[in-house]
# Entry
Amino acid sequence: MSELVQFAKLQRQMRADPGEMVPKRLAFTMFALMFLCVALVAYAKENDVPKVGVLVEAPIVDQLEIVVTGDRVGVYTVHDTDGNLLVTSSDHLAGFIGVIGRVIERDRKVSGVTGNPSMMVVRRDNGNISIIDDSVGLTVELIGYGKDNVAAFAKLLD
# Structure
């Protein structure tokens, strides 16, 4: 019987104040952080604080014009503008080509681009590899994707 009484007492304590699910200090701190972030952004915009930590596009030192096509299975092929097969996404360590192919295909569909225009794979002066699709105004800087993924496109330029 005493276990039943303790259980009932515990249930009453749990139902005592259902309105305060988040402690007031935590809620106040969250709103203070939100206000601080908005204030910092407003200050930076008002005083023209220069952007830091923004990728600077270095000059292009090497480039290759390619055409990427995909099939219903999801295998993407990369050809040069003369029609020579360069690589397929099913090749060893080339799956990232399929990922980028899917992204480009989706952007083109959303933008209403018809056909399959070519795009550029470029190596920049600082060593970064980029993919530039002028048909939708997309530039993908391949940084932070892992060395094998970047190497899949870098091999096209070598």
Remarks:
- The chain has two domains: 2-46, 60-157.
- The longest strand covers residues 60-70.
